[in-house]
Amino acid sequence: MDEQRQVNLTIVPDSRPDDQGERLYANFCAIAHTPFDFTLTFCEVMPLSDQALRDAQSDHIVRAPVRARVVLPVQSIPALIGALQEHLRVYAEAQPQAPQPHAPDPVH
After folding, report:
1. Which residues pair with 40 in a beta bridge?
2. Tag placement on the chain: N or C end, fewer CB within 10 Å?
3. Is the backbone of residue 83 left (phi > 0), alpha (psi -120 to 50) or beta?
4. 103 exposed, middle or buried (CB, 10 Å; 0-12, 13-18, 19+)?
């Protein structure tokens, strides 16, 4: 008879001093989903030039370069949300003089 055993593991990033991996900056995240996964598309939105601002006023669209696209299985989303909430709580407690982070209204 096959006996199943549960093994608890902790997964950690394998960072070596000589290999820090690529670090990307993004200040906007677009989110899409299918029945199977969520896609997080991270972009960098820069201040608009006068011409880009005029263009945006007419068509209400600002194009931002994609810095990374991450696809996550639906099952991992609740853990990601929980981890982000916990880190945001710890950040807010450690930075009492800083403006408190808040959730802006969704843009889409």
Report:
1. 31, 70
2. N
3. alpha
4. exposed
d(CA 40, CA 52): 25
**Predicted pLDDT of residue 63:** 84
The C-alpha atoms of residue 52 and residue 37 are separated, in whole angstroms, by: 34
Instruction: Give the pTM.
Output: 0.72
Q: Could you tell me the residue ranges of all domains in the chain?
A: 28-94
Picking from 24, 59, 61, the residue whose alpha carbon sits closest to that of residue 44 is 24
Residue 23 and residue 92: Cα distance in Å, rounded?
24
Contacts of 39 (CB under 8 A, 6+ apart): 31, 32, 33, 69, 70, 71, 72
